[in-house]
Amino acid sequence: MRILPRKFYNRNTVQVAKDLLGKTLVRKTGKQKLTGIIIETEAYKGKNDPASHASKKKTNRNKVMFGQVGWSYVYFTYGMHYCFNVVAKNDKDLSGAVLIRSIQPRLGIKTMIKNRKIDVISNLVNGPAKLTQAMRITLEQYHVDLTKDSDLFIMDGIKPAKILAKPRIGITEGVDKLWNFSFKI
DNA sequence: TCGCAGATTGCCT
DNA sequence: GGCAATCTGCGAA
What would the pLDDT profile of A42-88 be if each residue is shown by its tens digit? Predict the structure, then answer.
């Protein structure tokens, strides 16, 4: 398997969100290696997308969404949760990112369970904040290059059979857009 | 099984 | 000062 090249992310944000399904997320913590297949994503553009952090203006928090594609965007919210995004946009768009909502654990499941302090597999990574907790993603992973072999990157994976498109979750504006993508393994 | 409220911190207005 | 791309536990049905 190969690491996804930067040009993979240099396309329409919605298209990248779809194509990220089935790809492998790799997280290295010391000697431990945690991997998982991405099974749910959401697309957030900048302009004309009221639900996006970057819809209004560039701030210190969301500036990564305006920067280089293929870099991580981690943000802290609700006082206790982190969410993990990948910056992806074509040349026309000023900003955009794909939220990784859910994965299917492959390597290091035991470590993930330990990180989450629970023992129910079905409850391990079925949500963006649970995913970051299980994989130990924090603000230290804010602005990491995902196209390089480091602590955190994304590799090629499997091909999803059937992609489902739904409204995005947890937002109050822009709910008419079917930019939540998932598939069944 | 479903729906609601609390937790808790940093960012923006 | 108010709110957020969420999760969990609790109470009701």
Answer: 999 988 899 999 988 888 889 999 999 999 999 999 999 999 999 99
pLDDT band at A110 (very low <50, low <70, confident <90, very high): very high
* Residue-range definition of the domain harbouring residue A94: 6-182
The whole-model pTM stands at: 0.94
Considering only residues 104-163 of protein chain A, which place a Cβ less than 7 A from any atom of strand C?
Answer: 116, 118, 123, 127-130
Helices (H) and strands (E) in chain A, counts: 4, 8
- How long is the CA A32 to C1' C3 vector, in angstroms? 37
E strand or H helix at A102? strand A96-105
Distance, Å, A164 CA → C5 C1': 19
Does residue A32 lie within 7 Å of nucleic acid chain B, judged by its CB? no
- What is the DSSP secondary structure assignment for residue A4, as one 8-state letter? P
Question: Is position A78 within any domain?
Answer: yes
